[in-house]
Each structure stands twice: as structure tokens, then as C-alpha cells.
Design brief:
Layout: E1 3-5, E2 8-10, H1 15-18, E3 29-35, H2 41-44, E4 45-47, H3 51-57, E5 69-72, E6 75-77, H4 82-89, E7 93-100, H5 108-117, H6 129-137, E8 155-158, E9 174-177, H7 198-224, H8 237-250, E10 257-262, H9 280-301, E11 308-313, E12 318-322, E13 328-330, E14 334-339, E15 346-348, E16 368-369, H10 370-382, H11 386-392, E17 421-423, E18 430-437, E19 440-448, E20 453-462, E21 465-472, E22 479-487, E23 490-498
Parallel strand pairs: 3-10, 3-11, 7-15, 7-16, 8-9, 8-10
Antiparallel strand pairs: 1-2, 4-6, 5-6, 7-14, 11-14, 12-13, 17-18, 18-21, 19-20, 19-22, 22-23
Helix pairs in contact: 4-9, 8-9, 10-11
Length: 500
């Protein structure tokens, strides 16, 4: 029977088409590293071609160019990221510039909900983006699990709380653990018949959860005790989490998704010290870089690097202007990083475009909707069909090539370099934007500097050739705005300025 999932119509599909990852033909693993608090992307990866503008907007926290780690493409890493820089040089790292979503919500709680659920900014979804993926393949979960086909947890969160990314319809597909070698059995709830009441249903569910957890725990401990790490990890919480993940994968656990966490990125004050190369963000990025570098080296030595894709995410970036407390406040888009021997190396997207004089509220404008990144990972890494991705995430899903090798089944032909030309620019009221497209669906929108959608100018099929669209900006406040042009095989963003 057809049903609706977050407003999208779903139907029964063959297991091989929607859930090919959880079977004997696909042994790939996705590791998520959640950077809690809102990471300052401009401090982590600094666009050198925008450096002079950044010096005007955040001079009290900007790291000198002599200390930055120049990686080419007009980009430089924070000096604490030498381990990650080595992975970049080896072609084992990719960066998606300015990942976010339209109408960014700058609340930690709400934006985390959006990033973990994959929902639009104005809808509240009770399921996680990976939970829906798992649920479509295993609609009866958690009843009857573990079983002969699925003996191990579908997902594991390293820590005390399960990840909302893996929340399904009735249960979370993730199990939270701290030390996989020491998992105590939970006390069982008895075997007497439960009453036929709502209380009885809840009691039965609780007993079932306890039995499943105990059964899963045995397999986790067996895997942890049957393998060894090949490198020494840094003595940090994140280092311990990634060490245990590598241990479990090497031990043969068939878990598909692992979630690690690093907190502390809410750097309103003390993001840098008097020496801008030091401070809270420096310490956090050192922790992240050292742990990721050790993890990748371990995977390589264990012969697992082609099986594992690692991806970072944070609920938002920070604003362009720094504050007087040597920190930054809640912002919008930020870089998203991917690691592994199968990633498309280098940068996807352009340098964030920094205005000459950004307002206090202005932040990095979105280039890539994070849901397109999620969906592209599902397609390339877990072999999910594009139509199924649209059902899991959103109908306007647009594929982004993020995986470069390791027998990727998805096909993608990159578009020619797009050119979007607004004129006049700056403007007072009306502005025209010219572009070329093939015979394809075209989506053109206008956003303000705070990432809020001002207007969708066009979203329909156009004939091949040159097109010009007019936008009446009468009444807009002076400042920076952005045209976003999205075609079927490419996208472009350009800045325009409204004069007072």
C-alpha cells in the first residue's frame, strides 16, 4: 500500500534497489563526525583570495598568511590541521564549500534538528535521514531484530546518546556505546504475559529493546576483542571514538554507520588567544585533525580504507565579522569535509564571497544544500537510486559528485562552467541576470546575506540557449544579495549589491 513519509509518497520496492548496502554485496561503512556548537568555517579553511576583505571584518581573530597551511586553489587550512593537510596532499580528502540550507536557523537546537533529520527549515520531522534509509529496507524494525540476516546493529553512536540521524519511525537504528570491549548485559524484564493495554504495549516494547540490546552487545564485544589497532591514537575523546570504530570494523562487525562527536565549537569568546594561531578553535581543530589522520592511517594499515567514507558536519558556521570577545557568533553555511581513499579530492564549489563591508548579521552564503550532499553520499556510497533519494530527502534533490573511485556505480557528466551575469551590479531597483542552459530544468533564486530566501525567480523547464531574467529589488535594504542558479548538472552563485 502506498504511504506518505514526510509528505512524500512511498511504495514497496525490491530490497536490492533501495537497500543494496545492507547485504552481502556492499560492505561499505559511513562514519559521521559531528562538530557540535557551530564550527567557524572561515577560521578552519580560509579563502586566500578573500583575505583582504576578511582582514577588514575579523582582523582581531584572523590568522596571518605566514602561519596558514596553503593547499592551493586559493585555500589554506588552519595551522593546527597538519594531519588533515597531509590527507589532502595524498588525495584522500574532499571539501564541499559553503554547505547549508535556505533560511538558515541560527538556533543550536533547531539547526541540529534540521541537519540530523534532513528536513526543510520550516518543517519538523521526527525521523533522521539515515533512519528513514534504514527503515525503507527494514520496515518492521525493531521487531525481530537481531536475526540471522542482520546480527549486528545497523548503526552505532560512540558516546552516551544515540544519534538522531538514525531515528526511524518507531525506534532509533543506532545503539550508543562508550567502550565496545566492556558492555554490561541489561537486566531482563521478565517473561510473563503483558496486559492488553497501552501500558502493556510499552512494557512489551521495553522488554524487546532490552533483549535486542543484550543480543547486539555480544556481537559488538566479540568484534572488539578479535581485532587490534595498527597505530597509536591521540589521547582524546574523539581519538578514542575513532579508535573503537576502526577496531569494530576490523573485527568484522557489519554495522553500516558510525557516529562520533566533538563538542565545543560554540566560540562566542576566546576562539583565538592573543596569538590568533592559538585558542579554543586551534585546540579543537588540532583534536579533529590528529584523530582523523590516525583513523585514516589505521584503516590503511588494516586494509579497510576502500570500505570507509568519513564525513564531518556541524549545525551552522559562524558570521563573517568577529566580535569584541575574540570570537564569532552564530552564522550560516560552512565547509563540509569528506575523507577516504575513494573521495573526490580537492574542493567542490568556489571560495565564499566576502563583501567589502559585511553587516554584523552577515554570514557565509550557502552554495550547496546539505541535503544534496547527503543524497549524493547515499547514491555513491550505498547505491541508492536517485528517485529513492528524492523520497528520502526532498523532491528537488540535485546530485553532487563526491566519490571519485572504488567502483562507484553512479554516473555523472559534469556541466560546462556556468556563467551567471547580473547587470547592473551594484543596482538600485531592477537587475537582470543572464545565463545559458541546455534543454533542462532551471532553478534561479535570490538570497540575502543572512541566507534567507528572498524570491524564487524561476523553477521550470527551459529550452536550450541564452536566457535573461529580471528581478525587481525595489524596497530591498542596501547590502549584499546572492543569485543561486541550479541546473541539472551544475550550479553557480554570484553576488550582487543593492545601493542605498
Amino acid at each position: 500500500m502506498p504511504l506518505l513519509l514526510n509528505g512524500f509518497k512511498l511504495k514497496a520496492t525490491p530490497k536490492s534497489s533501495i537497500f543494496s548496502a545492507i547485504n552481502e554485496y556492499n560492505d561499505r561503512v559511513l562514519v559521521l563526525v559531528q562538530l557540535n556548537g557551530g564550527n567557524d568555517g572561515l577560521g578552519m579553511i580560509t579563502p586566500l583570495d578573500q583575505y583582504d576583505k576578511l582582514a577588514n571584518a575579523r582582523g582581531n581573530i584572523l590568522i596571518p598568511t605566514s602561519s596558514l597551511l596553503d593547499v592551493g586553489s586559493n585555500q589554506a587550512f588552519h595551522p593546527s590541521m597538519s594531519g588533515i593537510r597531509s590527507l589532502y596532499d595524498e588525495g584522500k580528502m574532499g571539501v564541499v564549500q559553503a554547505a547549508g540550507y535556505p533560511n538558515q536557523n541560527r538556533s543550536h537546537f533547531r539547526s541540529t534538528d534540521i541537519w540530523t533529520s534532513g528536513s526543510p527549515y520550516d518543517e519538523y520531522w521526527a525521523t533522521g535521514w539515515l533512519g528513514r534509509y534504514f527503515q525503507m529496507g527494514q520496515p518492521n524494525f525493531p521487531v525481530g531484530y537481531p536475526n540471522g540476516d542482520f546480527e549486528d546493529p545497523f548503526a552505532l553512536t560512540l558516546g552516551g546518546t544515540v544519534s538522531e540521524t538514525c531515528q526511524g519511525f518507531t525506534a532509533n537504528f543506532s545503539m550508543a556505546i562508550k567502550d565496545p570491549t566492556m558492555l554490561n548485559q541489561l537486566v531482563t524484564g521478565g517473561s510473563d504475559t503483558v496486559p492488553n493495554t497501552p501500558y502493556g504495549e510499552e512494557l512489551d516494547y521495553l522488554r524487546q529493546s532490552i533483549d535486542s540490546t543484550n543480543a547486539y552487545s555480544n556481537g559488538i564485544m566479540d568484534a572488539a576483542n578479535s581485532a587490534s589497532n595498527m597505530v597509536t591514537y591521540p589521547d582524546t575523546e574523539l581519538g578514542s571514538q575513532l579508535k573503537n570504530i576502526a577496531l569494530l570494523i576490523a573485527g568484522g562487525l557489519q554495522t553500516k554507520v558510525y557516529v562520533a562527536n566533538l563538542g565545543g565549537f560554540d566560540t562566542h569568546a576566546g576562539q583565538v588567544a592573543l596569538d590568533p594561531t592559538l585558542g579554543t578553535q586551534s585546540e579543537l581543530l588540532q583534536t579533529l585533525s590528529d584523530a582523523i589522520a590516525a583513523f585514516q592511517q589505521d584503516l590503511t594499515m588494516l586494509g579497510l580504507e576502500k570500505r570507509v567514507l568519513t564525513m564531518t558536519f556541524s549545525e551552522f558556521g559562524r558570521r563573517i565579522r568577529s566580535n569584541d570577545s575574540f570570537g564569532t557568533d552564530h552564522g550560516d553555511a560552512a565547509p563540509l569535509m569528506l575523507f577516504g581513499s575513494c573521495v573526490k579530492p580537492g574542493f567542490t564549489g568556489d571560495s565564499p564571497e566576502i563583501p567589502e563591508n559585511p553587516s554584523v548579521q552577515e554570514a557565509v552564503a550557502m552554495q550547496y544544500d546539505f541535503r544534496n550532499i547527503y543524497g549524493s553520499v547515499l547514491m555513491d556510497w550505498f547505491e541508492v537510486a536517485q528517485e529513492d533519494v528524492k523520497s528520502l530527502l526532498f523532491p528537488d534533490f540535485s546530485y553532487v559528485p563526491l566519490v571519485n573511485g572504488c567502483n562507484v556505480s553512479s554516473t555523472f557528466e559534469p556541466a560546462a562552467e556556468l556563467e551567471i551575469l547580473p547587470y547592473p551590479n551594484p543596482f538600485f531597483s531592477e537587475v537582470k541576470v543572464a545565463f545559458r542552459c541546455a534543454n533542462e530544468h532551471v532553478h534561479l533564486s535570490v538570497f540575502n546575506g543572512a541566507g534567507q530566501l528572498i524570491k524564487t525567480l524561476i523553477s521550470k523547464q527551459l529550452n536550450a540557449g541564452e536566457h535573461t531574467i529580471s528581478f525587481d529589488g525595489t524596497g530591498l535594504a542596501s547590502g549584499s544579495y546572492y543569485f543561486h542558479l541550479r541546473l541539472e548538472n551544475g550550479r553557480q552563485k554570484t553576488r550582487l549589491v543593492v545601493k542605498s
